[in-house]
Amino acid sequence: MNDKPNPNLEHQLSELLVDGEMESRNEKEEGRRLIPPKYEIRIQTTQDPIVEETRKYRSMAKELDDRYDKYMKRAGEDGTAGSGDSNS
After folding, report:
1. What is the pLDDT of residues 51-67, one digit of tens each?
2. What is the torsional sign of CA 45, 50, 55, 59?
């Protein structure tokens, strides 16, 4: 077998996936569904889930590196969202 990828074959597959016929009979509804939403919903939490998860992992095992220390300091000791240093 040929181990090198065939760019022409990849291009044809890409075209079929993007420009292929829509199987649905209601093309207007499918077209409307493909449009990305105008608004994004965000939920504000009182506690940071990353801080909570990091605390759980630290209670179970010792970390090999300090990759989350900077984030934990920025989030604050109490772990509440938005309690970090916002003056930077």
Report:
1. 899 889 889 988 888 88
2. positive
